[in-house]
Amino acid sequence: METKNNLVRRMSKIKGQVDGVEKMIVQDRDCLDVVQQIVAVRSALSGVAKELIKDNVSSCKGKSDEFERLVNSLFNLI
User: Fold this and answer.
1) Closest Cα partner for 22 from 10, 37, 6?
2) Would you tell me the crossing angle of helices 31-58 and 2-26 to the nearest 10 degrees?
3) What is the per-residue pLDDT across 37-71, written as a single tens digit (0 to 9) for each?
4) 29-47: string of b/e by CB count within 10 Å (b at 16+)?
5) DSSP string, 9-58
6) Which of these, 56, 51, 54, lies nearest to 11 by C-alpha position?
7) Residue 61 phi/psi, 5° resolution?
8) 53 and 71 in contact (C-beta within 8 Å)?
9) Which of 18, 28, 44, 73 has its CA 20 to 30 A from that of 55?
10) Is pTM, for the whole model, over 0.70?
């Protein structure tokens, strides 16, 4: 439950970041500044994805080696 609450809290923060990026675009802010914020949002989303995967994997310990390889592949994609 703690992980779920943490993920929801992080996603709420990311929503705020995305809203900020939208405002920057509307305000014709410098391209580099906007792209830096987009990179920050992507990084934050990757962090959420990794935590979600890690939490689910830890609850599925004892699964096959193939499952573990799949999870490692997912981490490499993120």
Assistant:
1) 37
2) 170
3) 999 999 999 999 988 888 877 665 556 676 777 77
4) eeeeebeebeeebeebbee
5) HHHHHHHHHHHHHHHHHHTT--HHHHHHHHHHHHHHHHHHHHHHHHHHHH
6) 51
7) -55, 150
8) yes
9) 18
10) yes
